[in-house]
Protein 1
Amino acid sequence: MAEQLVLDLARVEPPTFRSFVAGPNREAVTALGRLAEGALPEAGVLLWGGEGVGKTHLLHAVVAAAAPMRPAFLCARPADVPVEPDRLPASSLVAIDGVDQAGAEEQGRMFTLFNALAVHGGQWVAAACAPPARLALRDDLRTRLALGLVFEVLPLADGDKPQALATYALERGFRLGDDVIAYLLAHGRRDMRSLVATLAALDRHSLATRRTVTVALLREWLQRDLRL
């Protein structure tokens, strides 16, 4: 019971720009920062890329950054797009994840939303698996998406991963030694999604056992509990 309570308390901090190591995506992150501030002249930004590269993280981050300065809304899926976008406050920022998964009705709602945002001084940011020309969406919606800035979100190079892991650990409230990072990269899966999931679980185990995150703890835990 006590261990379960500790596990419940060890929550992940919300995604922010600070916890995202830009690596090859610096231009995209800079543009998103300007979008959050309302300083980007374009209608919106489309982020595209494969699974696990950080598109959803960036959508959450831009909404969090924008919230103190302008009305900002996150649609975790196309079905969450507002039915009456004209009711949104002026200068709203709307983030939509997985636009490539939108059905016919949802595509119509997104098209209406983009038009309403343009009329009322709002903007959008969206995430997809491919660039506009390759999305299986209606032509007018693909045209709207292409009118904004379009960035491919690239995976981190191996050289950027140690900084990314150290940053993520700090967001969770603990410091990760270079030796721990090196051991994790040498013995675990190397994609960031798996690495971050491993760190989150290791942090919970550390809290539950009241032990500092060290190579010894990581080695013991990997050998006993993790199937890599």
Note: Confidence is low (pLDDT under 50) at residues 1-11.
Protein 2
Amino acid sequence: MERTEHNPGAGKPSYLSGERVRLRAVEPEDLAVMYEMENDPQMWDISNFIEPYSRQLLREYIAENRNDVFADKQLRLMVELRETSEVVGTVDLDNFEPRHQRAGVGIAIRRAWRGQGIAGEALGLMLDYAFGFLRLHQLYAYVPQENEASRRLFCSAGFRETAVLDDWIWREGRYVPVVLLQKIQLR
């Protein structure tokens, strides 16, 4: 496994703010965007959802969310455009393991904003935060093998494809493999 060195926060005013986007905590006014994104069946494969989320359930999540990765073992940040404050996606840490200093990472960008480099910038900010501020040793992601755009996104951010998990996701009447991608931080 090749290990990479990451330069957190280089030339940035904060871990969570870039040139075009910033990452921020979930707010009550994010309900409509979260409802749209969480209830998109095309996203369910990667999130393991099996049913739609109600507005009430999402309201409760927002109200009870502490945004404390150590307590919750997960962290959701909204991706918003700096210029307009429009929410264009989410980026998550999940399955956080403080003892092993690792977490899963996932990103979802609303359809209208895909293909514009926003995912790459948001993922880069999350890497800065995870490695520079949280001092994690490793991040990993599971991406369906056929999702070449997501695989390119993670590889361009320094992740390496380290395994293929056969028959991992049931999609449209068949099992499909996923690729495990990892990024290990040098200290």
Note: Strands lie at 21-24, 75-81, 87-97, 102-109, 138-144, 160-171, 174-184.
